[in-house]
Write a structure and sequence with these properties.
Layout: E1 12-15, E2 27-30, E3 36-39, H1 69-72, H2 83-116, H3 121-124, H4 136-150, H5 157-175, E4 181-182, E5 187-188, E6 190-191, E7 205-208, E8 215-226, E9 229-231, H6 234-253, H7 265-280, H8 283-293, H9 301-304, H10 310-325, H11 338-352, E10 357-359, H12 381-387, H13 402-409, H14 428-432, E11 438-439, E12 445-446, E13 467-469, H15 473-484, E14 488-492, E15 496-501, E16 505-515, E17 523-529, E18 536-542, H16 544-547, H17 559-580, E19 584-593, H18 595-610, H19 615-626, E20 631-642, H20 646-655, E21 659-663, H21 668-677, E22 687-692, H22 695-717, H23 733-736, E23 740-743, H24 745-751, H25 757-765, E24 769-772, H26 777-790, E25 795-799, H27 805-810, E26 813-817, H28 824-827, E27 831-833, H29 838-875, H30 889-899, H31 902-910, H32 916-921, H33 927-930, H34 937-961, H35 969-991, H36 997-1020, H37 1033-1037, H38 1041-1068, H39 1072-1082, E28 1123-1128, H40 1146-1153, E29 1175-1180, E30 1183-1188, E31 1236-1237, E32 1240-1241
Parallel strand pairs: 7-21, 7-25, 21-24, 22-23, 23-24, 25-26, 26-27
Antiparallel strand pairs: 1-2, 2-3, 4-5, 6-27, 8-9, 8-20, 10-13, 11-12, 14-15, 15-16, 16-17, 17-18, 18-19, 19-20, 22-28, 29-30, 31-32
Length: about 1250
Amino acid sequence: VSEFNPLTFTSIIECEKPNNDLSRFRGCIIHDNGKKAGLYKENLLLRGCTLRNTEAVVGIVIYAGHETKALLNNSGPRYKRSQLERQMNCDVLWCVLLLICMSLFSAIGHGLWVQRYQEKKSLFDVPESDGTSLSPVPAAVYSFLTMIIVLQVLIPISLYVSIEIVKVCQVYFINQDIELYDEETDSQLQCRALNITEDLGQIQYIFSDKTGTLTENKMVFRRCTVSGIEYSHDANAQRLARYQEADSEEEEVVPKGGSLPLRGGAGGHQTQSSRAHWRTGSRAEARRVSMLTELTAFSSPMEKDVTPDPKLLEKVHECGRCLASARHQEHPLDHLSPELSDVFDFFIALTICNTVVVTSPDQPRQKVRVRFELKSPVKTIEDFLRRFTPSRLTLGGSSVGSASVAAKSAPKAGLLSTLANDDTLLRLEERLGAGAPHLASNGYSSAADGWTAEHSATGPEPRPELRYEAESPDEAALVHAARAYSCALVGRLHDQVSVELPHLGRLTFELLHTLGFDSIRKRMSVVIRHPLTDEINVYTKGADSVVMDLLLPCSTDDARGRHQMKIRSETQNYLNLYAVEGLRTLCIAKRVLSKEEYACWLQSHLEAESALDNREELLFQSAIRLETNLHLLGATGIEDRLQDGVPETIAKLRQAGLQIWVLTGDKQETAINIAHACKLLDHDEEVITLNAESQEACEALLDQCLRYVQSCSPQRTAGSLSVGFAPLCPPSEATASGPSLVIDGRSLAYALQKNLEDKFLFLAKQCRSVLCCRSTPLQKSMVVKLVRSKLKAMTLAIGDGANDVSMIQVADVGVGISGQEGMQAVMASDFAVPKFRYLKRLLIVHGHWCYSRLANMVLYFFYKNTMFVGLLFWFQFYCGFSASAMIDQWYLIFFNLLFSSLPQLVTGVLDKDVPADVLLAQPQLYRSGQNMEEYRPRTFWLNMADAAFQSLVCFFIPYLAYYDSDTDIFTWGTPITAIALFTFLLHLGIETKTWTWLNWTACGFSVVLFFTVALIYNASCATCYPPSNPYWTMQALMGDPVFYCICLLAPVAALLPRLFFKALQGTLFPTPLQLGRQLAKRSPGKFRAPGETSAQGHIPGEARTEPPGQRSFSAARSVSQDCSSRVSPGARQPACSPEAGGEPSAVDVGVLQREGTLPDGLGSQPSRSSSPGPVAVEGCPGGSRMKPVSASRPAHLPSVFSVPGLSSLNWMSSLSLVSGLGSVLQFSRSGLPMDKRDGDFLPGSAPPDRDLCGLSGQTTDCF
């Protein structure tokens, strides 16, 4: 083979203009003879990528410098504005309007003053150069412009700078949180967006992917069905159970913060590396070790060591024996029965229908030279005809070290196939002690008539150590499963795949084409030439929802057709069973192409590959033409376990008032089962399953479901209200909120149409949770965009794969997980977390803190600027509105810049209104951010009114103190400046919830700096502002007792109304946050953040029975023949009945009466809960009320406040200035006011927490 010579390369490359689309590339090479060869994304090497399993490449640069896709994508995360920032911008406009009004008022006042005192203007006005004075109108205009300059402090320009500084510090502290570090993966949270940290505290909807986000994305082969026969793999299930038990034991032994070992694989090596790092302190060394172990993807013992099913293993060996007996026949596969033929093709498909690359860890890489015609896939018809000669293909062709691996793995009496090249042909005589192997024309070579016994006389030799590197864990799981049945993938080149089979030795399949998986087709296919039959076969694997529709139609007239229909029916039943058990299902199918069919398809496929315009659509249509009339081989069930802490995280987030929607591409039954496992769906709640085959049916189902939900709403809330204050969270969320909605991808496509999206959104809003199955990436983004735009709600999207990128980018906050599907989601996200469970602390703790800090800081800025401007404005009434200032110009400049800037920054960075352990223990406190309780229009205007009042007090107290005296303007203005500073600092002290030494230092520094600057400035300014000057002003004031009196009296008088209002509000109507702070001080050790508990590693698949007495809906009349919907009512709370006998309750009667209104299929879904919990009897008019009591109920915050002696005024202990007021006013309440959100009241209070009943009362907390 001649080497490539760039000097003789004269072909022309045509390609698209530079763009940032990493998933697409269109181009072609035009040779001298006019032929075109298509170029696509597989031919493009991107800047920054790393080549693996490749000897060498020959390429030409097409994009360079800033035109490369990497740099075009390096624009950083898109700019997002937080909701708080948008609200702040509106309030800034109000400040601008207020500034214009104040300046206009002053201008009018100055004009009237000039007009009234025309005869005295010479005493006040400075005449022009010609001796004339301004008339009232020009004077008013000049006064208006001057007042805008003087009062421009009202517009908080410095607020934007301060916010950016605070956000940077907040991001730093979030990144440094050790609780957000995952030792297993040696990764931590990353803040990729600096401007939306406060949005983390206002999230209302969470949209989550399932695979890799809620689950581990570690696929383990669980069971399969072949030719309609199911193989349960019970021994493999027991093996997985032992892994789960071992993980649970390790998690119980390892303390929090210690090293939690992974279930194996690369992650396990990383854990060891992390441990080594902590022991030796050498992170570089640990990183080098982890890099060596990360070369293997998806290869943990749990995934690799599949235990085969004995029955299926026997059939695999029977296939080998049958083929061995027919070794002299021309077509050995024809002697297999249909069932054994399906078994053989099933494992061939598992082995080669993928893009798995094989490597050997203990063998050096060997350079392999092959003939030119074997180097590239089929590109032309002539190439196809030339290569479609059986003698052209011989056994061999492997990837990294495959020859040596095969040599090590082959039995002594076995066969080792090699490439048909004299340079690389291995001397088998040296290994076998026999003649040169005979290369048969039917595609396999043999020693001893071409066949190999699986076991030698001395017993089986151990299998070689092979590493499989897969694009997805599903592919790796299937390849490991096939290898467990001795069908091992031992080598792969770009045009050959080598497989080791029992009794056959090593076969090499010529790989003609690979049609990769995409989210639209939901399948992948390979086109190969079979070495035993010389046929062109197509192996396809994909989602059952698409593969089952592509099967060859069967006729019921003959026995074979009826048998195939029976196999399909049984396979579908097993697929449903797998989905109920929470397994990921894939269908395996096959098609045999004739030479004419393949040549016809190849012609159109080559045209599609070489097309520059509309190439993707042409290739899609080409794949559709190939993947038809398939023959079903079987199906697989793969288990994907939940991540640790997912159920607990979802429970906490729901208690925090967050609605969680799961958008997944999995089968509906699989998604429902996993939703139950992760506590997204409760077994005793209503589940509405919406499946429609047409848009009309979808509309009818939406109308029926809406009527049903609306009719159930009064009954669901009946009896849930209680007299007094309601708790922060309901005792039973299932009865406090609506049902859950499950919708498939086809129905979702109809529901997202313009005429149905409002109905779908209204129905989904009434539901407790939403589960969208079989959804595409486009549908995910459309759902997020619909909720964000229509409901005006704060949305968060979290995912780990490339199919989640669009959803992450559309949401207000995008969170990516660096999982096993690449870094696309992380690169498109605003925040990156190692695992889903870290979302709990990120939102509930850091999100709440960031929102609370910034909201209070923004309000404080508006207050401070308004109060300071008010001092200047009130002075205008005493200077003829001449835009004069009684405060020195240097004080005006430095007041916001130096004197009062540092304390507010420290508070904005470090303040914690509620400790982290209380926030995690009482996640319902997060709702304050959702409801914008800290910063809303009402609080803004109250804050502005308070600032105006304080400015009046701080102005007139010094005015009255120096009234009718000979004090000059500097002696009067300096005390006002000092009073304003003291008032600001005391006001900030009242609003600060957590005091640290930095807070004290910042406040003291501001006071010391002001007096230092004033003393130096007044001592050095002897000739400033002639004829008057501020010389020795501060020195004189510090010797005047009046100065100290007004500096103490004015701030206290100004802040007294605010202090009184807070005391009254906290006494009569305490907020949850105030009670949370009180609880943290009363019992600091009671609410430590619990350790991360292990999630249910195995998704339960046992059949669940309906509990006794459970009523369910019966099937109703049909709305459409092609639509179905189901509702599971779950356990309902019986209403009051007049008798205690067996008469149906009011709720039961209502359910029975509504059965006729439900659409076809809107019937019962068997409840998966166990027996109902104990029942408590509550008094009600006319009889008794039976109310289910939860077996285990979390501690609720309001239960603490029913403890005698725990006064609601104790929240005041968080204020250092009023720490003793709690002992004066002892208004004790039994709970909290009702928390109203979205029009729904939360139900009655929970019983007292037994852990807190021993709290001692009648004490006062001091700071």
